[in-house]
Write a structure and sequence with these properties.
disordered N terminus; homodimer
């Protein structure tokens, strides 16, 4: 474990502490020598170097410069703290001397207050963090795990991982890899991006093979589709797809080490035990309070300096920092006025389109509206009735019905479905219109969630063909696949027999296309724009308790829906298996970003803590302080949508977003469903605007939220580099380029040091 | 007083109860026979007739229809009330039988609870209402007082008013008047609109004489400017302009009866006494609580019916009901992004424009920015620094500085001033751009406030020439003149000696142009688009108390600014005098719509209660229940701006707007300063959106707020007719056209009956 000297030392992740957060930011390890440049010392060096460069380039702004050299004005915070308390009672966590001294300062403080009970709590927290590391590592959800992260400049922090899976890189690419990086010996895997990974920040439409067609338009026929791979795959009797080499296929010895469902539930149980432990809750609650107060103190003392720093940056402001709408559903990505206008124009211009087959006959659009007794003129936002404000609070069931225009499922089918009589043409057209709007706004980007239900095995091909045929690619848009947890519905209608069928319908096409992309060429191309998976449904539904005697999927034929935690596992485990194979082939991998903690039980958030790159909502973390603290320590991304919550679960002013933000959780703002919630033509700006008004967020905090949203997103390394700064993945101010993000370095330095102290406290106790 | 039979009986308003509210809505009198169709009985008939028509036209919607015939579903409210209380204790205020019975029902209830103390309180309220009537009547601020109200269809409710002033209508117009209305004998004055009042709802630009120029553009040379009038005017020794006939000029017997400042302060004192009286406060508080609860009950029982009614209306919805931004300042009518873009484009395209004279030299735009050490690229929202969120709370002084881009008064002078080196050309250009945006949105309209400071007597001409030269006319825009209360500033700089000079500078040009429009032809044309006056400044400044021994304006030479109430009087009295003359000439009159109750003392709101058509803000009414109750009874318009308050005086969730709305106050939503407060391209929609989200307002309430905004506004009769319905000025459902307003009839019927009951209670006690 004397890492520095021997960077190629094989490490098995289950026993080693992994230093990155799945959010994409590297969280440095305080122990010595682990990964090449992420140990404490070299990080400090890098940060200092970065600052020196910044200082050199900032000579034009002497005011800002003088502050930067003033150790982020932290001395004044120390002074302020000294006024209120004695140094003995509350030694300042800040220091304007040396980082080394500072961290030990903080540790002395922790040591003093540490009782045996607290030491036990801290150790249990440490165990929880390690458990998460295990799951995230084994599913390749860390920064650098995705071959696409490696853009020829970034070479990863994933040294040694090849040994986890025992997999060697594709033979035809490994030579290029080693040729490319002679000077970074610790990067042995994965290879630099193959040519078909070329995503740039400039073009709005890129052909799938990365080459721009002459008129800069997508041309499917030009896409290079790789050929068959020798490995084979099969779903095991526990419902997880496993991959085998040809040789091993007989012995059934899987290539990849995926945690079993038994292991998962044992670990889940452990974390649930920790976060419901009295002393753990109490300690976490106090740490969170402390962090929030500390941020308030920081803000009061530094707001004018932050503003001065931001003003000294030319050109950049709230409107032209990049924002990603990290959580928005495709079927509600347009606002209500847009959908209304679209429906009206269709009724006017294409009344004779045959759009639906009902009751034995084909109906034209005109006939459909005749049957509804409506003309184009009659239609209004009120008749459309898709806004969810008055009658949907605590009525998620009602909210789901809001997806039906005029309460008519046939209109939803015609206008908002992919698999219909017109092959989703209308839906594609309005999607293209929204894409154009987003592209025009330039700085706004979206990650749209589109459904795969798992009801039949051809859903993937239909979706992919729809995307390809309608050329629904945009530089401003990436995709997530949402799998609704609707087992009981399909079971009731007889569409499926066992839960295993859902697993098969969702994952088999993905393994097929990974083994042989030419078997589903459209899907292969589409998947290059897919960044991850989501799991969605009404979390507030009651769940049957099985006391962990869960049948395996092939035996799950009850009328009951499996509980949230069970769904999580099968999404996780199969994605993990898939990711290993895709990585081995140099294809992009996927992260898991489910809805969790919008409502329902604590185990939803706990399952997400173990399995998920980041989550949507998470508002219930406010009721589980220990889990919230763990989310903080791991900087797990929360894509929050307070306007959505306001309509469904929690009034705006009670939303924990501002508290989470103060504590330092990795929070971003997203719209969820502009069709149901938003009024203006710019739903994401509306979301920021309301937050700014009601939570009184200053420009610096809006910029930090926007930066968080880019980091949480699945946009490619090269694009993030362009949007946030060349080394955006470095922690604290070192990773920041204020000229791009508009976030004051002061702010990120504060965030980083504060996090370091919390981690130091926990690790010290653990190793003690 | 047996009105019905003798409609031409002269009445002096000071002793007669006036039945309209200055807001433009007629509040019907419950006493018998006063004005032709505004007595209770004929109003009921009209309402019933209206409903019968609606019912006939609604046969296509049987569901809605069945409810309408069900007496607005009020029987179910009665049932609900009966469940909770016994009929004896709380006789239901509703009845599905007869209105007559219903009102007496309510009165019985009031009678039962009426103690001698309450009777005295009610009588004092009645006296306050009559005082307001006196002031509003004497200043011609009621609906129908403005010649422009008379569009050939509406013939007014102002019978008998000719006798107030002793003025006869212009000779050349009175014959047309009587010829026009042979069947409405009670309309003897004013005449139908002369030809140059032709404002239509269709054209965006109208020539001042009402004739459209060939290309539908404004052409000043085509405007007809009336000639000199024989009357003369002079400021009296109490600081009020008086008008005399030529014959009376020697005797100094004024033509018009304007309340003196002494009378005003006596009346003001009376109202102040009433609203600070313990029992009055307590009773009003209880009535307000009762009204709010009643509305909640109404909402819970009728929300689905309201929604059904709204859905049955074709086409109309929140987006295409007309909204007026009833309170927005010209210098901040654009959002920050717009101003930034404008400044950048000027720096790029016109760097060599000579824009300012400073320190003895003319400077080009380029030189100005060189002196600021800024390039076009450097500029951002942050450097502009005009948003007021963080540092302006309870700092109105700081807020005022936010009008300076980059904190530089020279940029404000170049870009946001009319009277500068470039004759306000830049300001006109950006104003035109905002006008274009508003016109494009079609359903959004503004009333912009532009300053006359009263520092010099040529301000009016400069402003009018600026407007005319730059053709700043738009169908979607009307103007208000705001007079900042800055006496002490001009006094200090020596610009003026006494307060009288401000009165002269503000009002003399107006009297000149009314006497002889050809003396200021541009001003005459501009004034046709001006709907009223405003009075603005930081209300939270401390005011010196003079114990009502105020010197007259010509003697006011102290360094102290006169108090708010004193300013109010002089704005009021001079406007009143001016209005009488303008009306006599057939020119449009002005209403007084000051800022009041944003901060400061209770006497601000009390002075506004007496003198003002409507007000901006009024948030402090929440602390003065008796005054709030009086504002309710008189339906005085409140143009509220909760996002502005949120940045300056009161956080959003504590804003009383939702409570006021429940009670039934005449509330509208406005932006105040989009430049300082709003984020999106559609500031008025942003204002509605945040209110909808945070206050959880349903579509019906948004529509009611929008309707209120139109009613409060100064848009012309013909336009309001087009926007709200042919007889929009009738109270309750009778005045509503849901096909235009999208407000359910149910809602307005509820509002109206509730108001009737409150008025009935007060009047019964008064006459008892």
């Amino acid at each position: 474990m004397s890492g520095n000297g021997s960077p190629t030392l094989p490490l098995t992740p289950a026993t080693n502490f992994v230093v990155e957060s799945s959010s994409g930011l590297i969280i440095p390890e305080t122990r010595d020598g682990f990964y090449g440049y992420t140990d404490e010392k070299s990080l400090q060096q890098m940060e200092e170097q970065k600052w020196a460069q910044r200082r050199a380039s900032d000579v034009a702004h002497p005011q800002a410069d003088s502050t930067l050299s003033n150790s982020f004005k932290l001395s004044s915070i120390r002074e302020a703290l000294q006024i209120q308390t004695t140094e003995e009672l509350h030694p300042s966590p800040f220091s304007d001397d040396e980082d080394k001294e500072q961290v030990s300062d903080a540790q002395h403080h922790m040591d003093a207050m540490m009782t045996p009970e607290l030491a036990r709590v801290v150790q249990s927290f440490q165990k929880c963090l390690e458990l998460r590391d295990k799951y995230i590592t084994k599913s390749l959800q860390r920064l650098g795990d995705n071959p696409r992260d490696h853009d020829g400049v970034f070479h990863g922090v994933t040294e040694g991982l090849a040994d986890v899976s025992g997999v060697k890189p594709d033979v035809n690419q490994s030579s290029a890899a080693s040729a490319n990086s002679p000077h970074e010996p610790w990067v042995i895997y994965p290879p630099p991006p193959p040519p078909h990974w070329h995503f740039t920040a400039k073009e709005t439409v890129i052909s799938a093979d990365g080459r721009l067609t002459p008129d800069n338009e997508f041309d499917f026929s030009q896409c290079q589709i790789p050929s068959n791979h020798e490995w084979v795959f099969e779903i095991d009797d526990k419902g997880v797809y496993q991959v085998y080499t040809n040789a091993d296929a007989g012995t059934k010895k899987p290539l990849f080490d995926i945690p079993t469902i038994r292991e998962y539930f044992v670990d889940l149980d452990y974390v649930l035990g920790v976060i419901s432990d009295g002393p753990a809750k109490s300690m976490a609650y106090r740490r969170l309070k402390y962090l929030a107060s500390k941020f308030e103190m920081y803000s009061l003392l530094n707001e004018s300096q932050e503003l001065a720093d931001m003003k000294s940056v030319p050109h950049r402001d709230f409107y032209n920092v990049r924002k990603v709408d990290t959580h928005v559903h495709l079927a509600s990505c347009m606002n209500q006025k847009h959908l209304l206008r679209f429906i009206k124009s269709k009724m006017k211009r294409s009344p004779h389109d045959v759009v639906i087959f009902r009751d034995g006959t084909d109906l034209t659009l005109e006939q459909v509206f005749q049957s509804l007794k409506l003309s184009a003129y009659d239609l209004s936002i009120n008749t459309l009735d898709m806004h969810a404000h008055q009658d949907s609070f605590h009525r998620f069931d009602k909210f789901n019905l809001k997806y039906n225009p005029i309460g008519e499922s046939r209109l939803r089918e015609i206008f908002l479905k992919i698999d219909n009589k017109i092959d989703g043409r209308y839906f594609a057209e309005i999607t293209r219109e929204v894409m154009n709007d987003v592209e025009q706004s330039k700085y706004q980007n979206c990650e749209w969630r589109v459904s795969i239900y798992g009801r039949s095995v051809d859903e993937w091909d239909k979706l992919a063909k729809w995307i390809i045929k309608n050329e629904l690619f945009s530089h401003n848009v990436r995709w997530l696949i949402q799998v609704p947890r609707l087992y009981q519905v399909y079971k009731e209608t007889g569409a499926i027999d066992t839960f295993e069928e859902i697993v098969i319908n969702v994952f088999r096409p993905l393994f097929e296309v990974t083994k042989d992309p030419q078997s589903h060429p459209e899907l292969h191309v589409f998947l290059q724009r897919v960044v991850g998976f989501d799991s969605v449904d009404d979390e507030s539904k009651a769940e049957r308790r099985f006391h962990r005697k869960f049948p395996f999927p092939r035996l799950w034929d009850s009328q009951q829906n499996p509980p949230f935690s069970y769904w999580m596992y099968y999404m996780y485990a199969n994605t993990a298996s898939l990711n290993h194979w895709r990585k081995a082939r140099g294809f992009n991998t996927f992260v898991f970003r489910p809805h969790a903690g919008e409502a329902g039980d604590t185990d939803h958030l706990t399952a997400a803590f173990l399995t998920s790159h980041s989550i949507s909502h998470g508002i219930l973390l406010r009721k589980v302080p220990a889990l919230q603290y763990l989310f903080y320590l791991k900087q797990i991304g929360l894509a929050m949508s307070p306007l959505s919550n306001n309509a469904l679960f929690l009034t705006y002013e009670r939303n924990p977003l501002p508290d989470f933000f103060k504590v330092g959780l990795n929070v971003s703002l997203s719209t969820d469903d502009p069709l149901q919630f938003h009024f203006t033509k710019e739903p994401l700006l509306e979301e920021y605007s309301v937050a700014a008004h009601i939570y009184k967020l200053p420009q610096s905090s809006l910029a930090e939220l926007a930066r968080n949203s880019v980091i949480q997103s699945g946009f490619e390394m090269e694009i993030k580099r362009h949007w946030l700064g060349q080394e955006w993945y470095l922690p604290g101010a070192a990773g920041n380029d204020i000229h791009k993000t508009n976030v004051p370095n002061l702010r990120l330095a504060y965030r980083h040091r504060t996090l370091l102290e919390e981690l130091a406290m926990i690790r010290k106790q653990h190793s003690a």
